[in-house]
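Internal ticket #5521
Category: modeling
Description: The requester needs a full-assembly model to guide mutagenesis choices. All entity lines are attached below as received. Residue total reported by intake: 752.
Assigned to: D.W.
Attached entities:
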Amino acid sequence: MTASILTAPDRADHVLTRAVLVDDHQLLAQSLALALGFEGIECTVADLSDRAALVREVVDGPPAVVLLDLDLGDPVGDGGELVAPFVTAGCRVLVVSGSTDVEQVCRALEAGAVGVIGKDSPFDRLLEAALAVARGEQVLTGDERQALLDQARRLRSAREQALAPFERLSAREGEVLRALAGGKSVGHIAMTSFVSEATVRSQVRAILTKLGVSSQLEAVAAAHRHQWLRSSR
Amino acid sequence: MGEHNESRGPLGLVLGAALFVGLLGAGATALSQAAAHGAGVLGTMSLARPTVVVLAMASAFFLAAGVLRLARWRIAGEPHSAFAGAALLVMGGLCLPLGGLALLFPSTDDLSLVGPATRTIAELVAVALLVRALTVVDMSRAELPSRLLPRLFLGLTLVFLVLLAAQQVAPHTMTGQALPGMVLATVRALAWFGVALYAATRAPELAWAGRVAPLLMGMGFAEALRGLDLARPGAWTFAALLVCVSMAALSTRAALLDLDDAVSADERGRTDLSQALTLVSQEAVGLSEWREQLTHDARNACAGLRAALSILERQDGRIDPATRERLRLAAAQELGHIEHLINRSADEPCAPFEVSEVVRRVAEAAWAVGARVSVQGLPVHALGRPGDLAAVLKNLLVNAQTHAPGSQVRFAVTSDEGIVTITCADDGPGLSPEEACRAFDRGFRGRASNGSGLGLHGARELMLEQGGDLVLDPTGTGATFVTTLPHVAVSTRPRQAVRVPTQRVHAAGPRIAREVPVA
């Protein structure tokens, strides 16, 4: 994986004259398209109503610079997953992200994105970065890239550590915890899942033991804090 | 508190059995006593051992009941439990088979170290505590110092010691030979009957008082029985003790049930609290998610606006009017989206509001930027969230401007059969059958859509949330969207004449074609 990251920018030696903007926020996409258009790059703003069509649109043409947002909303969802198919097709992907989620950004880098730039950067820098990518230059220095990847690795291991106790929950215990977090009482859970309250209580006890907490409230708080509810959805 | 489940495990059974045996024994003793005419068959000393056993049982039951009552006091914080518990402990102390010690000294002919006078005083103390328990309801936990119990015990112990000492010093006075035993027994019985009656009168306000009244009555009965033994403790006293032990057993059972109630009420309280906190934390999570989304969208909007401004600033001369218009629309949409996010509050309750006014406000905002919009309709009230309706209508307006540039947009408000209908029609090309099918799908964007914004899917969700709907009317020539909300009759205001100017049309500059390739 690391090798591909380092070699990806090196093999880009020719200037690309086509750009595709993949962003659900149209104002930025349109403005960038306009500006790049004035620089002589043929731009299209991708249609985000169909994921497969989007991939085809990018991949079918000549290799392009793809300015990719990572949060694309429904129905496309995570833009990070698009990086790999684009890179495979010879495109150079610059992540233009409004996200502050380092892990998400780094997943895109690991998948072969050339660089990343925040949406909060000045417009000139955005434009310069896009042009640099088109020329085949590096946007991130090796050190910057490494620092980002390290940070992501640290974050990931911290998150995995925090979520480890949740991994030990059985499927049923996970269900119960989710119901508790949804504000359901033990009695209600027992009723809706057609088991006795004593059964649910013992499941709750198992949850408390596995998470190493002493009350239902603590368990629910832990689930929220470590975003287990979201990650397991 | 409240309902008592009669089958609460083996302890209840044991207590019930003890009660049964006690009453049976009392009856049998009384009968045999009657048969034996006072003395003879059942001699005094022959009852000594059984009396010690019964006394021990009564004492154990009373002490257990007292401890249970005190436990309930600690859990539920009701002061009456503390006083009732103290009274029960006094009774327990009183019944302690100290008399059994007498068996160790065969020379002693009296079974009890607690003489009638001592017994009377102690029982009156217990009765007084019970009366206090019955009157104390209004006292909160904070007013009842937790040092009360040690003080109470200390005081009672002292009283007992003093009484015992007095009994040793002046046995004739204290063992009731000065006062006839029958008189003292009558005093005790009357005290018990009195407190029983008082408890019965308090029963409507205090559930537990109603439950203990029969037990107190039983105690009075026991003392009355005891009074039948005129000179020395005999079979009647034994019968009285049996009744007494039955009452002790019953009070233990009552205390146990009450404690059980208090514990489960406490547990319920904790569960409720925990659930309430869970809901609060959930709301906090919802809030932080909303904030996250707002931040994310605001950051995107800022980036977009910055980009648009920057490009207008530098390349103004090279941008054709159509592109400029597209940028303007996209910027307006971005702003609308952020505005909606900021104003949006799903917790806002649906309330009656005047629909035409909201429609007019939306139209006015559009006139301000030169759109051609007309509004037609009577003032009519609907149940919903005006902010959300405005967001939906703005969305429809932007939609119409995008897909039917230059077309006039007509809003019409009507009310029929409990439903307020707001139609939004344009003269554009309308939707193709295929588009019409997918118009409300999540993520669907029309041919000329600028994306972003609420989208028809989001708009429809908003209306559904309020008990209304948003549908496409396939019969119109252009695109006609029909928004509905539940109608409410608001009688306080007289129906006014048409407040909204009909057919007010603002001419605007020429609309520009939709798809213009980037230069």
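Resolution: model delivered.
Comment from assignee: Chain A has twelve helices and five strands.
Ticket closed.
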